[in-house]
Structure formats: C-alpha cells, structure tokens
Design goal:
It is globular and about 45 Å long. The chain has helices at about 10-20, 30-35, 85-100, 115; strands at about 1-5, 45-50, 55-65, 70-80, 105-110, 120-125, 125-130, 140, 150-155, 165. Strand 9 and strand 10 (about 165) form a beta hairpin. By secondary structure, the protein is an alpha+beta fold. Strands 1, 2, 3, 4, 5, 6, 7, 8, 9 and 10 form a 10-stranded mixed sheet that branches. It has one domain: 3-Layer(aba) Sandwich (Aminopeptidase), CATH 3.40.630.30.
C-alpha cells in the first residue's frame, strides 16, 4: 500500500471514489460551499493506493473561525471493497501528524462523533457551519493544546468576510 500526496493525475479517480462513497448531491452539502473557489491544502490531500487501484483518499481545506486559521477535514473516503481494513483511520492519523508538523493548530469536520472521537475529535460548542448542518456533527481536534479554547463563531471560507465571530 502506497501513501502519498494526491497529484493532479489522481483528481478524476478521487472524485469517482467520493461519488461512489457518498450520496448523490454530495456537492450540495454546506461544507462544499466553504470549498468553492478555494484551493485545498495540497500537502495534506493524500491517497492510499494498492498497485494501480485507489483504496482511500482524504482532502483538507483552509477555513476560518473567529479570524483563526482552521483546517476543514473532508471528504475522506475508503473504497467499499477496502472498508474495515483501517485505511481511513490510517489516513486520518497520518494527515493529522503532517498537519501538526506544518504548524496548523486546529482541525474541524462534519461527521459522526462515535467514529471520530477515537481520534480525539470532540463536539465544538459555538462553532457554526453554514446551514443546514446539524450542530452535533461539528467536531474539532486540537493539534496544539488549547487551540479551540474560546473560539466561537461562523465557519467561513479562508479569505472570506469574517462576519460575526469572537475569540476569547
């Protein structure tokens, strides 16, 4: 199994994996609005390949909360024939390690708490994704201790108008 950064030649295959793993209309989700017109964090977008076949992929995007830089994790997908092998967990752990090494302080995602809590993600109080996101699914991870303390507000595109946010 080869783990490496996603490169431009992987794009269509990664998109096909996301289409396979997620419901039709995935691009209508609120998290996709935060990605429109914003380049992903290329050094954290990774693929796992077995010979010539794509087994899993993860992407990260820059966003802001209370004017602070935040990584938005997702989408992450594992090919249905490879699920249950720990590939998603490996991608998450390795990408978080790389994000810490690159100097990022905090990560957020929209997902199922029971799955992501095992990696250290916790429910973020007062951090609001664009509607109609369920607030119970907004989870955060601290790459630096205390990185989420006192940060509340709307999640906005990196470089977008900050709007109503606060940092204590």
């Amino acid at each position: 199994m080869e783990l490496r950064e996603e490169n431009p030649s992987d794009w269509w295959e990664v998109e096909a994996l996301y289409d396979l793993c997620f419901a039709p209309g995935r691009e209508a989700l609120s998290s996709y609005r935060l990605r429109e017109g914003v380049a992903p964090v290329a050094s954290l977008c990774m693929v796992l390949r077995d010979q010539d076949s794509l087994a899993a992929a993860v992407r990260y995007w820059p966003v802001r909360v209370a004017g602070q830089r935040v990584l938005l994790l997702g989408p992450i997908a594992v090919h249905p024939t490879r699920q249950g092998e720990g590939l998603g967990g490996h991608l998450i752990a390795e990408s978080l390690r790389r994000a810490r090494a690159l100097g990022w302080a905090r990560v957020l995602l929209v997902g199922d708490a029971p799955y992501y809590e095992r990696f250290g993600f916790r429910r973020l109080q007062g951090v609001r994704m664009p509607p109609p996101t369920n607030p119970d699914r907004v989870l955060g991870f601290e790459l630096t201790p205390g990185a989420w303390e006192g940060i509340t507000g709307d999640v906005v595109r990196d470089g977008a108008e900050i709007g109503k946010t606060s940092q204590k």
